[in-house]
Amino acid sequence: MKLKYGEIKGALKMSERKKRGEQRQPTNRKGKRKQKLKFILSISILLMIVLTVGFVAYEIVTDTQTMGCKTFVYGQNVSRLTPDQATEKINTAFEDKTVSFYENGKSVYTVSLRELGYSLNTQTLETELFKLKKEIWKKRTIFEPREDWKIPYEVVRDDNRLSETLSAEHFTADTERINSEDAYIKYDDTSKKFIIVDAVQGNQIDPNRLLQYTSDCIQRNLEEDFFRKAISVDINENTYSQAAVTASSEELLSRLSELNTNIEKYNNTSITYLFGDVTETIDSATINSWMVISGDKVEIDSDKVRAYIESLASKYNTIYVPRSFYTSNGQTVTISNNEYGFRIDQDAEFEQLCADLQSGTTIQRSPIYEKEGLSRNGTDDLNGSYIEVSLEQQHLWLYKNGVLVTDTDVISGLPTEDRATYTGAYAIAYKASPFTLSSDIYGYEVPVTYWMPFVYGQGLHDADWQPEFGGDVYKTNGSHGCINLPPDQAEVIYNAIDGGYPIILY
Fold first, then answer.
1. Residue 469 φ/ψ, nearest 5 degrees
2. Residue 330 lies in a domain
3. Cis before 434? omega within 30
4. Tens of pLDDT along 216-234?
5. How far is CA 388 from the centre of its chain?
6. Which pTM does this prediction carry?
7. How far apart are CA 165 and CA 216, in angstroms?
8. How many angstroms separate the CA atoms of 195 and 257, rounded?
9. Residue 497: pLDDT above 70?
10. Residues in CB range of 13: below 8 A, 6 or more apart
11. Tell me, what's the pLDDT at 85?
């Protein structure tokens, strides 16, 4: 059967419509899926926008009220904390920080800063945290970096609590404590000089030094590392009681120098006493035997010095003691009234000798005399120069330097109680030429050319009124106590002697 073109075309169209109709149902299901996906995506996007906006809003509100995120202060995380909350956290962390004490590498005591009376000024801290919060807000970004801030702070300390917590009893349980000893000076027998013995460092806790040292350690730690590590304090010489005097003490060194200078002076001193040609020497060995070393003192034993002077006086004093005299006639007589000679002034000599001992020099001198004769040679205080008068023989001898200058007969005092010539040893007081002899008692006034008195108004003088001299004339025509001389002999004697010349009458 043949179809017309129009019918064919119509049939084709119908066929296409049928095809499309067959496929319509699947196509509608896919479209619905797409629409659903679009809806979910839209909702998701909307939700994300809402969440983002909410998050941003939350962050803004949170940052406004708190320290923000990723915020640390001295290593303490204060993120999302208000300034007052951050203040409490930082202060608590500060107070909880431990302080450990070690001695000889061993832990002996551990406390917290809180127990030691340390804390932060919370008002100051909170104020600084508020300032920091504002600064952080100004610098905030979407992606905040972690940052550890350092802000000003003020440490508060309760000194009473610190002292109580650091009492010495906490450090004595297992340790034997020894007191420190001062450096001192002592005499060394080997070197024969003073030396300094160094101070001994003990381990006795000094509360004040412990307090100061601990405070310094804590302060140094806080400056270096505020929170990150515990504080360690070594119990050592910085906390121990110290010797008040060390070997380097200027006062001690000065004293040492002074003492050794004195010893050196003593060792270099030599004192020689002159007794005419006879000498007595005090050498360094003798001086050392007189030294008294007591601690850091060197002194001369005054008793030994006085004993030495007494021995000198006993040996060389010649006045006011019976005198043994060898006469020109070869006899030895004892002179009782001995008022001539030498006598050491022991008090004055003691003072002078003590001064001389520290001179550090060689000294030669005569001792200080209370009474002093004309010259001497050791215990011989006449030394070959003297006037000798024998009342029994009525004769006089004049010696000078061991040589007989002259001898002569004389007339002595009438041998009565009131006119006899005094016996004894005396010194010629002075010389006078001319001179007038007078006496109210005996009623005379007689001029003489040469007058040489020796004792109690008696003296030597010329007597031109005497017709002769010597023998027994004195028994009938004796003087009033004076020694009458021939005029020529009186002149010789007068010219040969001076005041102080010794005269022996027996």
1. -135, 155
2. no
3. yes
4. 999 998 887 777 678 999 9
5. 66
6. 0.63
7. 16
8. 10
9. yes
10. none
11. 96
